[in-house]
Structures are given as C-alpha cells and as structure tokens.
Amino acid sequence: MADALLKVTGLEVHFPIRSPFLRRRTGTVRAVDGVNLEVARGETLALVGESGCGKTTTGKAILRLIDPTGGSIRFRGEEIAHHTPRQLAPFRRRMQIVFQDPYASLNPRMTVGGILAAPFEIHRIGDAKDRPGRVAALLRTVGLPPEAARRYPHEFSGGQRQRIGIARALALQPDLVIGDEPVSALDVSIQAQIINLMRRLQAELGLAYIMISHNLAVVSHVADRVAVMYLGRVVETAPREALFFDARHPYTQALLSAVPEPVPGGRRTRRVPQGDVPSPAHPPLGCHFHPRCPHAMPVCSQEAPASRIVSPGHAVACHLVPA
C-alpha cells in the first residue's frame, strides 16, 4: 500500500509465565504472534476475532502502550517499534485511542474540562488562557454543550461519556485513532449514535481508524477493510464486501455463520468449530486453527500457512488456498 499511514510487519508480543515461588520463567504466552497490517490515511480497518485472540494487545502494541517483543511498526514512514519514551513523544500526538469502557476510562476526580485540557498541558500546547476555548470547541465537535466542562464524569450517561472519550482522543489532532470496542458497553440505540459520530468526524478530519471489535454487525457498517485474527495471528484480510460475501478461511466462515440473521424466519447454516480455543501459552504447531478446522489436512499440523493473495486486497493464510 503506497500511501500507508501505518505499516505493521511481523509484530510479536510475548508475556513470560513465571513460577509463583522462585519467579523462574516457565513458559511464554504468545499473545501476538507475527501480525502484518497496513492502514491508509482516512481508512477504517476493522480488527475482528474471538475474545482473547490478541486484538486489544495488537492495538496497544501499535500505540506502544505495550512494548512489542519483535517486529516492525512504521508510522508516517518512521520506525517506532523501538523508540524511547522521549523519541515517542511527538508520535503520541498523532496516535490516540478510545477505550472500551466509558465508565472506567475517565478520571472520576477530574472535571470534564480538566480531562480534556490535560493533553494540551502534557504536550505544552497553548496556555492556560486559551485552553477553556479549546475544550469548549472539542465538546461542540462531539455534540456536547460547552457547559459540560464544569461537570464530573458521573453526571453523564454512558453515551455522553464515550463522546467525552472521543473528544479527548481528538484533542491533539491525531492522524490515527484506535477504537478498542468503543460501542460494546453501550445500549444498541446509543451505539448507532456513536458510530455515526465517529464516521462524521472521520469525514471532516480525515482520520484513519483501527476498529477493534467482535461485533461483525457493527464492522459491516464502519469498515473499509477487515482483518480477522485467531490466536495471535491474522488469518484473513479483505475489503469489507469481499470478506462478508466471499470469506475463504474456515475460521472467518465460522465467525460469519454466527451472525444473527436479520430477516425474520431466515436461516443460516452454522459452522461451529470443533473443540475449544487452544491456550496462547501452548499454541498448536503449524496452522493455529487446524485442531478445530473441519478441512484440516496433514500439512496443516506441520507448517504454518503463508498469506496468499486470492483477489485484489484479499489475502488468506490457509493451505486450502492454492499457492
């Protein structure tokens, strides 16, 4: 992708397992195990998969909230995977996050004005006189009155708190915003409002989004492209329409078959994977999905499949796909 804002190659995040007594390392949790992603300017990439597949860890590693074990993270053309905190400072202004829980992500002891002014103070933007005006402008941008700056987070509804979280993410005029399940804790009617708000802001400000979600119904409305993760690896990446109508990986097909049919009386054939999700501390050899795959072949348990292009923009890591 020539105009990539973000390019992630071979990203790995491993966590040590230590014994409770001597604190010796006894194993490794391979939370993210060689992820490749690209995001263009103004694009929305959805990162989907079951709980525990490594989506949130991938997002945090991209933002360097977690240090990666290995791999490359190139943002705006510069490698940042191994930057020091001082070197990262200018990049933190350009990459922001909207957290899943609007109740836990806002400091209950600070007013909304204090929460939204904090990014300007930390990055030394403006002075104390002009910050109230900046805060008021942010509140208007997300559909809240400027008077909200004097109130505390507990005085707002869940949807309003998430609007405040979005305003905080926009304060420093970022290029990339990662939404970590930004609507999953909200009522369905409020979810639609927040999604519409984020889409409007993207069009107005030229934002790129990485939307982390397990809700494929939401993904179908917001994503330009979709990357499907399973046990720390990306198994399929495709434009939204191609993924929903021509999914190639057995795991992606199983995910899509679990989406409720919106047509009354409609039926969809369920493709339920066998068994349980393996532990990332002891991932299967070869293809991570092969113990649960109905189409598994001997090669699947011996060799990890390479990502193969099946159509423009559509890549699948599966031995069923011809080389």
Please estimate the helix content: 25-40%
CATH class of the domain at 103-174 and 183-206: Alpha Beta
Strands of the biggest beta sheet: in what spatial order? 6-7-8-3-9-10-12-11
Q: Give the amount of beta strand, in percent.
A: 25-35%
Distance between the termini: 21 Å
Tally of separate helices = 9
Tell me, rounded to a whole number, the average pLDDT: 92
Mind telling me the CATH superfamily name of the domain at 103-174 and 183-206?
Answer: P-loop containing nucleotide triphosphate hydrolases
Can you tell me the residue ranges where pLDDT is under 50 for at least 5 consecutive residues?
Answer: none
Number of strands: 12
Q: Any idea what the shape is?
A: globular
The name of the CATH topology of the domain at 103-174 and 183-206 is Rossmann fold
Q: What is the radius of gyration?
A: 21 Å
What order do the SSEs take from the amino end to the carboxyl end, as H and E?
A: EEEHEEHEHHHEHEHEEHHEE
Assign the structural class, choosing from mainly alpha, mainly beta, alpha/beta, alpha+beta, or little secondary structure.
alpha/beta
Give the biggest beta sheet: 8 strands, mixed
- Annotated CATH architecture of the domain at 103-174 and 183-206: 3-Layer(aba) Sandwich
